[in-house]
Structure formats: structure tokens, C-alpha cells
Design goal:
about 300 residues; alpha/beta; 10 helices
Amino acid sequence: MPRLAYLGPEGTFTEEALRLLDPGAERLPCATVSAALAAVRGGEADGAVVPLENSVEGAITTTLDEFAWGEPLLIDAELLLPVRFSLLARPGTEIPHIKRVYTHPAAITQCRAYLSRELPDAVVVAAPSTAAAAQEVSLPGSPYDAAIAARIAGEHYGLVELAGDIGDRTDTVTRFVKVARPGRPLPEPTGSDRTTLVVFLADDHPGALLEMLTEFSVRGVNLTRIESRPTGDGIGRYFFHFDFEGHVADARVGEAIAGLHRVCGEVRFLGSYPRADGVVPRVKPGTADEEFAEAGDWLARIRAGQV
């Protein structure tokens, strides 16, 4: 039974994602994303599940920076989790009596219309996480009347759901990834895969970003996400996160990564793994594995003088 760390406490959306990714795993709640990943790096856990991006809020920058600067870890699975916020309270509480609401800032942003419409006079206070908010509301003598959190948090802390699916958008999704220490075989290619990299420029010069993107473009590799993050070395100094279609075992993907290695200061490989959405990439003519192999054979014949 693997032991998986996750962003706790119990009742977070991350715990819900972990249960779906590996229902039989032992769960280790951690106070922060950094703590969850540290548990993996230190051997306290076999792996971790952490949020990577949200369809409304964007990238989870703590996760991005941990992948870039921390001891290397590899992604071996991902999950797209629909985010459904619930208004939770102690049994007997009624919505008209709610004066103070406790929740994470992201939930405040994503439930703004509901709060304005249904609880216009309530004071909304930011919490470290939605689950921590639910935990606090469950305590006797809590100064808060209700929490906005995942329904699973209500199950953990004995709260009742006064209203469900209260987010401003019904299609909000958070992408979670499961990571482990390097050293084990990569997931096999499925035909619907994603690869993730962190790339540092060798130096800052005109066209540096274009040079990186060209390595993908000329080989028909489609990017699904690009994020820039500051290096900390001064204003205007950035490194880049890339997600793109395909598996490192695919010739076009391997060639693109090798090309980046030649022109960039550092390329950190974060894994190739099955896509949660099952999308199969369209392979550009001239970039299929057999076409790379045929071109290699042709070049070998030329080098052997067999023109």
C-alpha cells in the first residue's frame, strides 16, 4: 500500500483527487504543497498529490516553483477534478443567521456572485484552506457561522450542506498531478500522453523564447501550457514551464527535448504520463515515429556514401 502525501488537512479537494487517483493508498495530510513534496523527497511518503493549475485561477505558483527549484520529482499521473463548492455549517444553522463565513481566498473569488446575492451582509474571512475553514467552523465556540469548502469536508467535520455547487462557474476544474521520486520506469506511452518540462535560458538575448518554441514547432509538438516564472535574479529574468502533447518515447518529442538541451541553460524533465482528458494528438505529416526512422536511415546511407 503506497503512502501518498497531499495538501491537507482532511477534507481538501486535493484529498478528493488523491482518493480518485489511488483509492487504496494510505493518506498523509500536510500543511502546505511544499511540505507534501518534502515528505516525498525525504522518504516519508512514496508519492504526493498536489494541485498544478485551475481553470479560473490559473497556475499554482508554489507547485511550479517547487518543481523548478526543489530536488527532482517525476509526474506519473494527472487528474482533472471538477470544483464544486458547498456552504457548510453546524447542524441547526440557517442561512439568514450566517454573519461570518470562513474560506480560502480562491473560494471567495469563485463564489463572489453567490455571496453577494445570498449573504450580502456577511463578513467573509480568508482561511489557509477550504478544509481548514470547515475544521474551524466545526469547533464549539467558533467565531464563524459557515465555511465554503468541498462537500467531503462536511463529511469529515460533521457539518451539514446548506447550499451546494455555489461557484460562479459550473465548469471550474483543477488539475492535480501525482509525483514520485525518480528511479522507477516511466509510464508506458498510451497514444494520449502529456510531457512536462522546466526550461532555463542559457542567456537573455533577442529571440531566446522564439528559439525554444521553434524546437517544438518544427517537430509538430503542440504545447498545452506555457508559464513564465521569475528566477529571482532581477526584474525581467524568467524560466519557463511547458506542458505539451506526446511522450518522451515519441521521436518528435524526444527530438524536441534534445533540441532544447542544446540551446538552453538547463532542461528539467518532469515526466511523461497519460492525459486525464484522453485527447489524442494530431500528428503533423513528417513527424510520425516511422518518418523519423526513415529519415535517419536515409541519412545513414548518405553518410555511408550510398547516394
